Amino acid sequence: MMGAQHALITGATSGIGLAIARRLASQGMNITIGGLGADDEIADICKSLIRAGAPKTIHDPADMRDPVAVRHMIDVAADRFGGIAILVNNAGIQHVAPVTAFPPDKWDDVLAINLSAVFHASAAAAVHMVAAGWGRIINISSVHGLVASPDKAAYVAAKHGVIGLTKTMALEHARGAITVNAICPGWVKTPLVEQQIIKRAKASGKSFDEEANRLVADKMPSWTFTDADDVAAAVQFLCGPASASITGTSLIMDGGWTAQ
Ligand code: NAD
Question: Which domain holds residue 58?
């Protein structure tokens, strides 16, 4: 179901979420984007989505740490566009530290944004999807929803949780035309990962590019970053007619990371 429908993408002011918003806009969908950013940058993003093909685009500034704001964002957007056909739970943050030194407030933030917001948004959106008799929920988990890396306890816990939530909701909606799936990308060169590369480059004294190559070669047998546009194309596929029987799965896009 595409065209003149409504898709809401959280964390769509940057990186993977923005690529997904552009892709769904290009299919003629009305778009609600969530995410943080300067007013003028967000206004430019909304204009770019209209140019890409969205009839209407709105931005909701809800803080994904606030359950009430997350649920309100869904209901307001659904009211505005007469429903919500596609929800992409994409907003996410990272914090890198060993468990013994992991700041509790960072743990709370990562869990709130990367996991609890997925629960609140999905719960609110599913009500509208059930009423409409159709819906797609796509959760951007991570390769870290399947395997761990040191110093990423909160992120790994949250992303594993997203996969469990995805399976549970898929079962709860298996008899209707609502599917719930996750996507698990490997490294994608976005601000979230660039911050980690900059940190590693500072520690090693190497250049950004050298450290980026090392980061990828370390984990991904492909030695190539996953492309944000490819993740967006996967979202489009999961929203298309050929994916009607795909539910409760995790689509892994990791250049062989988890095959090792
Ligand atoms: P990004 O930093 O480019 O974008 C994150 C988005 O989340 C931004 O729009 C930001 O404004 C939004 N956000 C952050 N905190 C928020 C808050 N409190 N309230 C509302 N919005 C908030 O990151 P990205 O790499 O594009 O990541 C997108 C998703 O993909 C995340 O869930 C991330 O975990 C996942 N992911 C990323 C990679 C990668 O290598 N980049 C790999 C696997 C999974």
Answer: 6-186+227-252
| Residue that is written with structure tokens 């993740």 in the block | 231
Confidence of residue 4 (pLDDT cuts 50, 70, 90): low
Please give all residues whose beta carbon lies within 6 A of any atom in ligand 1, as ranges.
11-17, 34-37, 63-65, 90-93, 113-114, 140, 142, 185, 187-188, 190-193
* 100 and 45 in a common domain: yes
* Ligand 1 mean position, distance from CA 76 (Å): 22
CB 9 within 8 A of CB 88: yes
- Residues with catalytic annotation? 155
Q: 4 CA to middle of ligand 1, Å? A: 26
Give the Cβ contact number of residue 214 at 10 Å. Answer: 14
236-247: per-residue pLDDT in tens? Answer: 999 999 999 999
CATH of the domain at 178: 3.40.50.720
| pLDDT at site 2 | 54
